């Protein structure tokens, strides 16, 4: 995917660009290519970005450790404000940030990278708790043998027998 030059986007007809996605994203390991589309509108002082995309990736179950396939699906939108970058050296090291200030910004004369934005959106869809099935029993525990095969553990076993909970 190519980067979109923001001043050029403001000049095109409809101030819109649609990017078809049919490729693997380099940073995201998926079984199938990411398929979908990203649309970007220039709205004067902000960009409106919408995406619909999906891919299949292999995850490892947190309970049984087996691998399984999971479908990532994104249907999202975001507003990205266009404003000049603030020099970080001028800001205090500690400052209070209002909830309204927690927005994405880009310089008005910069570039928008739809592949990086789509990568971030797909990463947000990866489940935190990865389970192959809601009824996954987990790793099967096998009872340890009662007889000691290594005589070096005999002292520990004798001490264990002296404890009151046995």
Describe the protein.
It is built from 3 helices and 7 strands. The mean pLDDT is about 85. The chain has one domain (about 5-160). Helix content is about 15%, strand content about 35%. About 10% of the residues are buried. The chain is α+β, with helices and mostly antiparallel strands and about 170 residues long.
Observed structural traits:
7 strands; elongated; 166 residues; alpha+beta; two-stranded antiparallel ribbon; 5-stranded mixed β-sheet
Quick structural summary:
The chain has one domain. The protein is α+β, with helices and mostly antiparallel strands and 166 residues long.
User: What would you report as the Rg, rounded to the nearest angstrom?
Assistant: 27 Å
Strand order of the largest sheet: 2-3-4-5-6
Summed over residues and divided by their number, the pLDDT gives a mean of 87
The class by helix and strand makeup works out as alpha+beta
Order of helices and strands: EHEEEEEEHH
Identify the overall geometry.
elongated
Distance between the termini: 66 Å
- Beta-strand level of the residues, as a percent range? 25-35%
Helix content: 10-25%
User: How many helical elements?
Assistant: 3
- DSSP E strands, number: 7
- Unreliable spans are none
The tally of structural domains comes to 1
Largest sheet: 5 strands, mixed
